[in-house]
């Protein structure tokens, strides 16, 4: 939920009195903020049994908007231990290719970068971490991976043709975690994001400079 709405998950949990297991239930009222004093938004009640999928990636397309509220479900198991990423110096590029759309923090935000490539081109982990989401739960993003690198950093890899790792799996920097594709989009590319304390940052500012 924090990733979807651009919030720090620790602050979101604290604002809602949620413990360190981060467990929530269908119909629970959540305040969508990572700071005190914001307006609470209620998730609608559902009678169906809880699923085990985490919430999808927030929308990056100008013409699409995220729903105002929804009920979501979380995995019951705790993820594996997260490997700490060294700030600014530990990152590597997720794949080869030309950036065809850059990061934007404007009104019509594009919360990451799009890298052109070929079908089945390797997509690599930019740093050590743990897979916290692997699936295709959001229309427009295709097959998606979200990786937690530390308490502060997450990365996301969208539009893959194949996902090669599973939720809860520990991965190493440079490991091939997916194969590039065009799922949920109109051409073969990787949509890549980095979040710091829940907020989107320009990946180019963290990744090594290319010659």
Structure description:
With 211 residues, the protein is mostly beta strands. Helix content is 5%, strand content 27%. The chain is built from two helices and twelve strands. It has helices spanning 2-5, 9-15; strands spanning 29-30, 41-42, 99-101, 113-116, 122-124, 129-135, 143-148, 153-163, 170-171, 176-180, 189-196, 199-201. Strands 3, 4, 5, 6, 7, 8, 9, 10, 11 and 12 form a ten-stranded antiparallel sheet that branches. Strand 11 and strand 12 (199-201) form a beta hairpin. The longest helix has 7 residues, at 9-15.
Write the layout of secondary structure elements.
Blueprint: H1 2-5, H2 9-15, E1 29-30, E2 41-42, E3 99-101, E4 113-116, E5 122-124, E6 129-135, E7 143-148, E8 153-163, E9 170-171, E10 176-180, E11 189-196, E12 199-201
Antiparallel strand pairs: 1-2, 3-4, 4-11, 5-10, 6-7, 6-9, 7-8, 8-10, 8-11, 11-12
């Amino acid at each position: 939920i924090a990733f979807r709405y651009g919030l720090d998950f620790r602050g979101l949990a604290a604002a809602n009195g949620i413990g360190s297991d981060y467990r929530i239930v269908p119909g629970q009222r959540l305040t969508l903020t990572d700071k005190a004093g914001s307006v609470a938004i209620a998730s609608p009640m559902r009678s169906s049994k809880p699923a085990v999928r985490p919430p999808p990636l927030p929308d990056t397309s100008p013409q699409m908007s995220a729903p105002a509220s929804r009920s979501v479900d979380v995995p019951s198991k705790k993820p594996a231990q997260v490997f700490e990423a060294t700030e600014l110096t530990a990152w590597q590029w997720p794949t080869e290719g030309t950036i065809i759309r850059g990061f934007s923090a404007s009104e019509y935000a594009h919360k990451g970068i799009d890298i052109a490539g070929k079908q089945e081109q390797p997509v690599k982990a930019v740093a050590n971490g743990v897979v916290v989401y692997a699936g295709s739960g959001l229309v427009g993003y295709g097959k998606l991976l979200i990786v937690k690198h530390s308490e502060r950093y997450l990365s996301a890899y969208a539009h893959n043709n194949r996902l090669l790792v599973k939720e809860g799996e520990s991965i190493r920097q440079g490991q091939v975690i997916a194969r590039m594709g065009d799922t949920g989009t109109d051409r073969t590319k990787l949509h890549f994001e980095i979040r710091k304390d829940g907020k989107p940052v320009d990946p180019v500012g963290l990744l090594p400079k290319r010659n």
